[in-house]
Amino acid sequence: MNVLFATCTCQEATGAGEPRPCAHLLGYAGLLCEQQAYEDALVAAYEAQDDLWGLTLENDRTERVLREMGVCEF
Fold first, then answer.
1. DSSP at 1
2. Chain centroid to CA 69
3. What are the residues whose beta carbons fall under 8 Å from the beta carbon of 63, sequence distance 6 or more?
4. Which of 2, 24, 28 is nearest to 11 (CA)?
5. How far apart (Å, rounded) are the C-alpha atoms in residues 12 and 28?
């Protein structure tokens, strides 16, 4: 399965007849939708909890922690 190009070489995807997405690609698409819904709910919860200034402070704190851990450079 190649999720980047949305192709799969399983029997279901290469079977005779019209091309259709296989269970692997449909499952992957479902997982992406679930992840996006979770992230949207998380953002909504943070926005309800804090105002924009509070979110800015939390973002700055997160960036500082990641920088100190050496995960990424800002």
1. -
2. 23
3. 74
4. 24
5. 15
pTM of the model: 0.50
Residue 29 to residue 74: CA distance in whole angstroms: 32
DSSP 3: T
pLDDT of residue 4: 62
pLDDT of amino acid 58: 86
**Portion of the chain with pLDDT greater than 90, in percent:** 18
Going by the DSSP 8-state scheme, the letter that residue 50 receives in this structure is S
Structure tokens at 46: 């943070």
C-alpha–C-alpha distance, residues 52 and 55, integer Å: 5
Residue of higher predicted confidence among 37 and 7:
37
